[in-house]
Amino acid sequence: MITNKKAFINGKILTMDEKHPEVEAMLVEDDKVKKIGGSKEILSIAEDAEIIDLMGKRILPGMNDSHMHLLSYGLSIKKVDLRQCKSLQDIREEILGYLETEEEKYFGDWIVGHGWNEENFSLPEYPIAEFLDDICKDRPIYISRACYHMAAVNHKALQLAGIDNTTQSPEGGKIDKYEDGKPTGVLRENALLMAYNLISISDEVEVLKKLISDSVEDGLRVGLTSIQSDDFGHVKDYNCVVEAYKSLEEENALNVRINLQMLVNKSTLEKIIASNIKTGTGSDLLKYGPLKVLADGSLGGRTAALQEAYEDDKENNGILIHSRSYLRDLLQTAAAADIQLAVHAIGDRTMVELLDLYEEIYLHDDTKRPRLIHCQITNKEILEKMAKLKVIADIQPSFVMTDMKMVENRVGKERAKDSYIWKSMLNQGVMVAGSSDAPIESFNPFWGIYAAVTRRNLDEKPEGGWYPEECLAIMEAIRLYTVGSSYATFEEEIKGKLKEGYLADFIVLDKDIMEINPLEIKDLEVEATYVGGECVYKIDR
């Protein structure tokens, strides 16, 4: 059998292995690291190998995003981009500009946008139905807030969704209304699904493959070699998503490792179980991951479930999307079938409920690695219980860059001190994995590492960092996106490090992340990305 051998020499290879933290060279055979060591040592055993001189560049294990939405990222490129809007007038101009250049109605007759955030407006206000009618009243408009847990629609969309003065808010959602009962056009959590589920989104496999491939290419440019993606909720039939990924794999066109997070209801979960699918089913390139569940909303939309009311909305404690009995039944069903659990939990009330359920479901078995995604509003007791139950925290360091300006408004200074406390998590012994939640934030892992280390925004504010006692050391931050994310998928013995027997997934940086000013981390560029020893991206200089 012919083997593919490559010797990478003269580099500064950060292995993430405690025994040999940094080496000069490594021999890659087929898709795995065969040997690490000095350049002379590797060259001495590199007969018939291709020699690649790293020219002193810094090498890291490939970046692994533990929670994002790859398909949603691809779809977001087709939508009206409202992320830079500073006012309602900006929203108006962006939508009108989109309509002037619209080449194809990708979402049928619907006008779909994403990313507006009233916290960025000089006068915080929502784009209500009347405002959107003034832009276009003949076609339905649906524009999601930056958090994706809240949306604004026009009256055409309300009409199509059957929402009027008499419509009650669904369980786990809220239809915002005026005092006279008239809908404002703002929909939260499950209420937004009444409109969103009407939007025409193609589930043709070839269309999905193109969206995925384009998104993967963007990920490779920033050093992502593994992506744990929550995609099932974006199409009517999740099988179309699976088929698209499998087809790309069969065509040798899937250049990143994918772990599928399964956001499904109880009946679909039972069908998945009946198909003998469990966490880890698949190949090194494409695997089924955990059951994904949404348990509460977002802090920005004031729908994250809190133990005490919002500081800026005293009558509101947020929304628990599911009843406790439904959650217990869903999670127990998955756990009994050896499917890992990963639940979206932002508020402290949600986290307390989920930790109680995890303890009940797993009893004294601490080997199942249940996960809580986001973990934003916490406290000492919550962290202690997470450590005790060995619950993984999937955090999004980039969130702090955009959220810091509104956290104290939402929860007050006392609770803000217990928010986004990643250093405290590590000190408590919680296993933490790094992610982006893209397209909510950029999936550039170096923005995440920068945010974790500096706790500043991209303008390098505030000086010293936001609650700087929670800043991570550079190695702690890199570990989030390598060892931590690999542990979350039970793959810490094959990826996340560069050592003998591990998958040869790694990246070449333009500057040395270990030596530059931490403020420069956000500006790092990936010069090359390798998956299984093959170069799948090289920067065009």
TrEMBL record:
Protein's organism: Alkaliphilus serpentinus
Keyword Hydrolase: yes
InterPro entries from the UniProt entry: Amidohydro_3, Metal-dep_hydrolase_composite, Metal_Hydrolase, YtcJ-like
UniProt-listed Gene3D superfamilies: 3.10.310.70, Metal-dependent hydrolases (3.20.20.140), Urease, subunit C, domain 1 (2.30.40.10)
Pfam families membership: Amidohydro_3 (PF07969)
Domain named Amidohydrolase: residues: 50-537
Swiss-Prot/TrEMBL keywords: Hydrolase
Name of the protein in its database record: Amidohydrolase
Signal peptide feature range: none
GO molecular function (one): hydrolase activity, acting on carbon-nitrogen (but not peptide) bonds
